[in-house]
Amino acid sequence: EPEVTQTPSHQVTQMGQEVILRCVPISNHLYFYWYRQILGQKVEFLVSFYNNEISEKSEIFDDQFSVERPDGSNFTLKIRSTKLEDSAMYFCASSVSRGQPSYEQYFGPGTRLTVT
Amino acid sequence: GDSVTQMEGPVTLSEEAFLTINCTYTATGYPSLFWYVQYPGEGLQLLLKATKADDKGSNKGFEATYRKETTSFHLEKGSVQVSDSAVYFCALRNQGGKLIFGQGTELSVKP
What Å distances lie between residue B108 and A41, A47, A96, B7, B12, CA to CA? Predict the structure, then answer.
């Protein structure tokens, strides 16, 4: 069964450093998402991406964040200058479509980012 | 804006007990509703979904019915197992496609 994959599973970085989190969505999916979950809190939407453009972004997704689909398979989230409060589990998700009721989002296993 | 509210956890039950986890939502339009499950150390897995009013989603013995009149989507299971121990998230998908999650409810099932 096809699945969303994410690398690395755990990333430790120092405050102020840049990190890139990588995702490989399911191959025929067209819509891509990043969510994050701070430890013990709810899962929060960050950004959605379609046709090489951001479709929607949350207030969390400020200028320190960017997303890219550098090739036909990868989808990346970059944090330019990490802060302590960026420590969280970051989930990538993909879906075939956005609005069709039956097309759900499939989630990857997540990348745990720890900023020290 | 759109939001989802779940009952607070943790919920601790004995094996074979009946489970209800309450979920209510606020949304404009007609969202699709979902329950996701997160087992310890793992990512989010879709448990069940309902796309319109009065739909019942079901999977692995879990059920939830989309109730538009009460804006609810409560999760139920008749007889829980130790292996059901996990965190359960209720979510809605708005017209734009993003998922909005509740705060999660931790379930612990004791033998």
Answer: 18, 32, 34, 14, 5
The contacts of residue A35 (CB under 8 Å, 6+ apart) are A43, A44, A45, A46, A90, A91, A93, A107, B99
**Which DSSP state fits B29?**
S
What per-residue confidence (pLDDT) applies to B28?
85
Min distance A89 CA to chain B CA atoms (Å): 9
The Cα–Cα gap between B60 and A102 comes to: 19
Q: Do B43 and A106 touch (CB under 8 A)?
A: no
Chain segment A16-71, per-residue pLDDT in tens: 999 999 999 998 898 999 999 998 888 999 999 998 999 999 999 999 999 999 88
Distance from CA of B84 to the nearest CA of A (A): 19
pLDDT, tens digit (0-9, with 9 covering 90-100), for A86-98: 999 999 999 986 6
